[in-house]
Amino acid sequence: MGPTCCPACAGADIPVFRLIDRGSAEVRVFSRPDGDRYEAVRILPFGETVDPPGPVGIPLDTEPPENRVR
User: Fold this and answer.
1) Mean pLDDT in order along the chain per 10 residues (70 residues)
2) b/e for 9-43, b at 16 or more Cβ within 10 A?
């Protein structure tokens, strides 16, 4: 999943979009929306903390979701 992962979110100018991929145990953080795509994507393993760019201003926890999502 690259910067074109969520065109609706980018098109709505959502500044930061986090996608949890349980299959690969990774978190993808999309930022800098431009039209229907994001210019930046960071891929991190579960357990790292992300300091997102822009207006979010709070660290995002990437602890494994365990049984919270089925």
Assistant:
1) 71 87 86 90 86 74 64
2) bbeeeebbbeeeeeeeebbbbbbebeeebbeebee
